[in-house]
Amino acid sequence: MTVNEIAKVLEELAPLAHAEDFDNVGLLVGDPHMEVKGVLVTLDTLENVVDEAIQKKCNLIVSFHPIIFKGLKRLTGSNYVERVVLKAIVNNIAIYSMHTALDNSKMGVNAKICEVLGLKNPEILIPRAKSIKKLITYAPTADAESIKLALFQAGAGEIGKYSNCSYSLEGIGSFKAGDNANPTVGTIGEVHFEKEAQINVIYSFENEKAILSALFDAHPYEEVAYEILTLENSNQDLGMGMIGNLDVEMGEKEFLLLVKQRMNASVVRHSQLLDKKVKKVAVLGGSGAFAIGAAKSAGADIYVSADFKYHDFYQAENQLVIADIGHFETEQFTKDLLVDYLTKKIPNFAVSLSESITNPIKYL
Fold first, then answer.
1. Are 148 and 197 in contact (CB under 8 A)?
2. Fewer Cβ within 10 Å of end Cβ, the chain: N or C?
3. C-beta separation of 91 from 50 below 8 A
4. How far is Cα 94 from Cα 37, in angstroms, rounded to an integer?
5. What is the pLDDT of residues 5-45, one digit of tens each?
6. By C-alpha distance, which of 82, 108, 73, 74 is closest to 29?
């Protein structure tokens, strides 16, 4: 398999279009057409990880965090980023990053945290806004079903657990073909009236190119009339953080000790305990201060994330307990998720879990 082919498999789980605007995801180093001998999955791509890839004969590193985040103006090996990139290039190793594309995936980073903590029925904590679009088009009644089928196959009409969703109205369309037109029906220079169906389907924004291509290929008209609207509906299958429930409620301290044990956390920093039972838990891998308000609004008893500053803990306001277990600790199981996913998707292919230690934070 080539780098590109493996990237397509990864993008089924986390399309790059789902990444945040500030991020740098996808293939960062290497030839997309290179034949892959082995894949090494890591949280961070550091020099010791590249050395491990060399030792294990892996020429593709799939990394959660992007080693190149800001623009590089030179490659002289003057810092750890430049040294990693140079070493990868010299050894013909490609580097692919997923980061916030996987953060926003319903089956990604936060789903894995929920799994480790035993949270049931997890839902997206902050659904992505303005990511659902609506296509309205008009076609001869006889062609409506074949056009809808083409749109469904391109990714339109999916709502939660349902697929092939659409709405149609019947009416009369009119047009007059000009001198250089090539009308499918009607006569040049004459107004023509045609029984038509108005077809309505919704879709996730990253599928727009494929859906429009399918529409133009399936539609019989020379000129296709269509409208695209961006909906205010939040996408319940895409977004940051998750919230789920414990099977059996427990005390706050008992739950925090459970989190520390299951997440291999050296330290748990937390806000004031409220002497309440814990049932509903919000989680967010990585830096999560921006989601404190969402966790409170969702009715979470405890919010588990990382990188909270001193004043962030005040935002708990006796409504929930904020728990900071460390950035690495919240994301560490992501590489296990990716190894399991790739192993299932590409059986009999060499996929290795990195054994290199990449957490830059140490504790006494």
1. no
2. C
3. yes
4. 11
5. 999 999 999 999 999 999 999 999 999 999 999 999 999 99
6. 82
Nearest CA to 65 among 82, 80, 44?
44
Q: At residue 25, what are phi and psi to the nearest 5 degrees?
A: -120, 170
List the structure tokens of 140: 């001869």
Q: Where are the beta strands (DSSP E) in 141-276?
A: 167-176, 191-204, 226-230, 235-251, 269-270
Q: How far is CA 162 from CA 42, 159, 211, in A?
A: 34, 5, 18
What is the DSSP secondary-structure string of 282-339?
A: EEEEEE-GGGHHHHHHTT-SEEEEE---GGGGGGGTTTSEEEE--HHHHHTTHHHHHH
What are the CA-CA distances from residue 16 to residues 78, 204, 258, 343 (Å)? 30, 13, 34, 21
Q: Is 49 helix (H, G, I), strand (E, B) or coil?
A: helix
Nearest-CA neighbor of 186 among 215, 221, 217?
221
CA distance linking residue 343 with residue 10, whole number of Å: 11
Q: What digits encode the pLDDT tens for the residues 322-339?
A: 999 999 999 999 999 999
- Return the SS3 of 20: coil
The tokens of 337 are what? 């998720």
Residue 240 backbone phi and psi in degrees, to 5: -95, 140
DSSP state of 47: H
DSSP per-residue string spanning 115-160: HHHT-EEEEEEEEETT-EEEEEEEEEGGGHHHHHHHHHHTT-S-BT
d(CA 17, CA 183): 37
Taking alpha carbons only, the member of 199, 238, 207, 205 closest to residue 132 is 205
- Looking only at the bridges linking them, the beta strands covering 321-324 and 302-306 are parallel
∠ Cα 40 58 27 (to 5°): 65
Beta carbons of 82 and 75 less than 8 angstroms apart: yes
Phi, psi angle pair for 328, to nearest 5°: -60, -45
Least Cα distance to 44 among 335, 239, 337, 280 occurs for 335
Helix, strand, or coil (residue 4) = helix
- Read off the tokens for 15: 């399309």
Q: Which residues pair with 124 in a beta bridge?
A: 242
Provide the whole-model pTM: 0.91
